[in-house]
Write a structure and sequence with these properties.
Elements (H helix, E strand, L loop, with lengths): L1 H19 L3 H25 L9 H16 L5 H24 L6 H20 L9 E2 L14 H24 L1 H11 L1 H6 L4 H27 L1 E2 L1 H5 L1 H14 L6 H20 L5 H16 L7 H8 L6 H12 L1
Antiparallel strand pairs: 1-2
Helix pairs in contact: 1-6, 2-6, 2-9, 2-11, 2-12, 3-4, 3-5, 3-9, 4-9, 6-7, 6-9, 7-9, 11-12, 11-13, 12-13
Amino acid sequence: MRDVRSILIFGVLLAVAASVLQSGVLLTFLMMSLYAVLLSQSWNILGGYGGQLSFGHALFFGVGAYTQAIAQLSWGWNPWLALPVAIAFGAVAGLVVGALAFRGGLKGSYFALVTLAFAEVARILAVSVSFTGGGVGLMVPLHASAANLQFGSRRGYLYVLLSFVMAALLVTAWLRHSRFGAYLQAVRDNESAARAIGVDPVRVKLGAIALSASFMAAAGACYVQMFQYIDAGIAFGPAISIEALVGVIVGGVGTLWGPVLGAALLYILGESTRNLFGELPGISMVIYGVVLVVIVMFLPRGLTGAGMSVRRMMGRPANPDRATERKEEARV
């Protein structure tokens, strides 16, 4: 209940800020920060709570993005109708990847490499076929209206992204307290032990990857609506996957608010870097790499676990009272 209350407060504060702010720069900052948070929170469902490290989450992003664009351009659908279909297609893509990988017993680095391979195959296919626009990509015509899911200002997109972010946070909170979440974390911690007590690891992991992929597809669909363009490099390239997982690692893997803090911080760093150094090729990747190395070395639990990491570096126990009790028990 405390998690739900904090999520609602978070949503209300951002909604009020969006309605009050008049600066296009600040609205764009909030919009892109929420977009980054959605990417990271999507990855956190599978990678953080499920323990299945993915290097290819761009696959689900791209499926959602291309479905959103093709539904409008080729099928003549309204964007609001295309949106749930794009999310559903992303979930199906997740189930397909999961069925092939999890039923084959792949996990750890093997699963990570398989997801990376799937994303790369999808990128090559998207460049090669005509209905995706090939190497040129697809451009969605601009018809600004709320009915067309295209808004005259960033405020409208901000509300849409905020809705998805809150939904992702609520799902994450549910994973922290539900039976399915307990099964998922049991599989993450010890798959053999979870199987021994009657948990079906494959079914649980399939549920997690479907949830994760659906939110990633939602982010892809929102990207198309915000920028009216998508190509294979954007949709299935490694940059999306890196942005999603680095935000979680920086903020705190398997936590509720870690991806929010990590993704927001990385976006701030990225924008500051661009303002200071201009559009230098690859500078954002360099920043991500440096931040990741620093976090892994000094804050392995991420920003949300900074206090515990600092105490360990200083040689102090994370819970002094409990440490004293253990020493007394050892003496006895």
